[in-house]
Design brief:
The chain is α/β, with parallel strands linked by helices. The chain has 13 helices and 13 strands. The chain has three domains: 3-107, Orthogonal Bundle (Arc Repressor Mutant, subunit A), CATH 1.10.10; 118-189 and 301-330, D-Maltodextrin-Binding Protein, domain 2, CATH 3.40.190.10; 195-293, D-Maltodextrin-Binding Protein, domain 2, CATH 3.40.190.10.
Length: 331
């Protein structure tokens, strides 16, 4: 029985099963406004919501103004971390999301992938710094939209990632190291960033930027996961290792932060992961001059999963997570 047949079998107002609607109440209601509200609530910025909705910022700003009139409330106000929802907006988040899901369920084509009912286990190979950045964003999104999709993070050396994909030990991999992929592997760019120098101003004051030659005269502490994340495509990180300017490597973000706070040392890191170190203590980051090298983060998967809707859904959320991280940095 298709959706039309189901609707035909529902009671009609003539049969007394459904109360008639007062259509005048719906004159000011535009379902697209609720879609915009949901995007604004999740992105906490007009520009981020515009990207999610594939609209221009002026259009989303206009929709926010209409939403404010509709609900007679500011809904989102400027705060220290972007746009903060008001009490009314926070109350609206769950019922609006439920209403949108129910509305889409009425018009969704038969057989279309439904994340809310999907059950799957997806294994992702992530370097430790990226795991700390991405999993909270991914898990929050899946908890809202696809609670029965389980994410499993696997520690796999970059050199083994192609073989692990072929053996189905992992379903996808994210890394900044160029992989020896084959014709049956797929890949997509996620992020590109420069190097920064993390330090504790109280231990080792630095100028607004540091030159590459200056860094070679300082003692640098390496985060081994971040070195693996960037050394394959970043000649400068490799040079620091081989010249002895980076004599110490540690595994833990917390350990690296403690070292920076207690000794006159620096850490040279991809800008993407530097905030994870800096937020651990009274630390700061300055850009590195004199090197044009960048760290390119890519997503890899086996083409055998191209048609799997669950994998495609998770890959899209990985892409969206990096877009959200970029937006937070810009804001």
């Amino acid at each position: 029985m298709d959706q039309i047949d189901e609707l035909r079998n529902h009671p009609t107002p003539a049969s007394g099963g459904i109360e008639p609607l007062d259509y005048r109440k719906f004159r000011g209601l535009d379902l697209n406004l609720l879609v915009a509200f949901d995007a604004l609530a999740s992105q906490r910025s007009v520009s981020g919501a515009a990207r999610q909705l594939f609209l221009g910022q002026p259009a989303v700003s206009h929709m926010l103004a209409r939403l404010r009139r509709l609900f007679d409330d500011p809904l989102f106000v400027r705060g220290a971390r972007g746009m903060e929802p008001t009490a009314k907006a926070r109350w609206l988040v769950e019922p609006v999301r439920a209403l949108l899901n129910e509305a889409y369920g009425l018009v969704r084509p038969a057989g279309e992938f439904d994340p809310s009912s999907a059950q799957a286990r997806v294994r992702i190979a992530l370097p430790e710094p990226l795991e700390a950045m991405l999993l909270p964003v991914l898990c929050a999104a899946l908890a809202r939209e696809a609670p029965s999709i389980q994410l499993v993070s696997r520690a796999v050396p970059a050199a083994r990632m192609p073989d692990a994909l072929d053996a189905r030990e992992i379903d996808m991999a994210v890394t900044g190291v160029p992989l020896a992929t084959k014709d049956w592997h797929r890949g997509a760019d996620l992020h590109r960033c420069h190097l920064v120098c993390a330090h504790a101003p109280a231990q080792l004051p630095l100028p607004a930027s540091v030159g590459a030659d200056e860094l070679r005269r300082l003692q640098a502490i390496g985060l081994s996961h971040a070195i693996e994340l960037g050394s394959g495509c970043n000649a400068f990180l490799g040079q620091l290792q081989h010249t002895g300017a980076m004599p110490t490597e540690v595994e833990s973000l917390l350990t690296l932060s403690r070292l920076l706070q207690t000794a006159p040392v620096v850490a040279v890191l991809p800008a993407l992961v530097a905030p994870l170190v800096v937020r651990q203590g009274a630390l700061a980051c300055v850009p590195v001059r004199g090197t044009e090298d960048t760290v390119s983060i890519r997503l890899h998967w086996h083409n055998g999963t191209d048609g799997d809707p669950v994998h495609g859904y998770v890959r899209q959320h990985l892409t969206d997570a990096f877009a959200a991280i970029r937006q937070q940095a810009e804001d």
